[in-house]
Specification:
alpha/beta, Rossmann fold
Length: 161
């Protein structure tokens, strides 16, 4: 089990909308949601599922981002991605949950371990939290996640399905 995960808005939103929030505390000891990400999710429409669920999650640790790294700021990412990366630099061994390509590329340059939804679902299957990565990935796509055919193929290969 990885100790700490720092989550960005997009993957967290689609996982909440897919009713997959139960996998987070089973896979990670600590799940951090930076203040900027929290605010982004709560800025959704009043009937938005993710907006309704987030404040109810006992495992979601809402955290302010005090540090601002000049290199990260120069990448011109969104507020949420910037906060995720800034926090990751301050927490030893933390992984970040990101699906944004530019943010993942930036994390790689900074040496920050990343995880996307596909990788998260593979971990969930390895822990017997879901029956099928591809079936669950379809559910996540129905909730609004766009994935290229290449990513779907790669996830299917890694999942062994």
């Amino acid at each position: 089990m990885t100790k700490t995960l720092i989550a960005d808005a997009s993957p967290l939103i689609v996982l909440l909308k897919s009713d997959l929030e139960c996998i987070f505390p089973e896979l990670f000891e600590e799940i951090i949601v930076p203040e900027a990400v929290w605010e982004e999710i709560l800025a959704g429409k009043p009937n938005d599922i993710a907006r309704q669920k987030l404040p109810q999650l006992s495992w979601a640790k809402r955290t302010a981002t005090e540090i601002s790294n000049e290199t990260i700021e120069s990448y011109n990412l969104g507020k949420g991605e910037t906060a995720v990366l800034n926090l990751a630099l301050t927490i030893s061994g933390a992984r970040v949950l990101l699906d944004d390509f530019a943010a993942r590329k930036s994390a790689k340059v900074l040496g920050i371990p990343t995880l996307g939804i596909g990788g998260l679902l593979i971990l969930a299957k390895q822990q017997n939290l879901i029956a099928s990565v591809m079936e669950t990935l379809g559910k996540v796509q129905n909730a609004g996640l766009w994935l290229s055919d290449e990513i779907i193929k790669l996830t299917k290969e890694k999942a062994g399905e």
